[in-house]
Amino acid sequence: MTQLNTSKSSAGCRSNRMYREDGDWFFKTREGDIVGPFQEELEASTQLEIYIRLISSGLLATEEGLR
Questions:
Q1: How far apart are CA 33 and CA 4, in angstroms?
Q2: What mean pLDDT value characterizes the chain?
């Protein structure tokens, strides 16, 4: 089983991608997309982690991958 890297540098980088606006949570992707809204910070954080895993595994196409 693979363990998540929960070091401060990893979490800090991701936390910069999340933000709250008008009571809802969003995250920004490296590609510049904004994903959300999510009602809870935990939900946004979980979805960000899923997004990162999908991009890293190549299962989710990006604009760069389509060129």
A1: 24
A2: 80
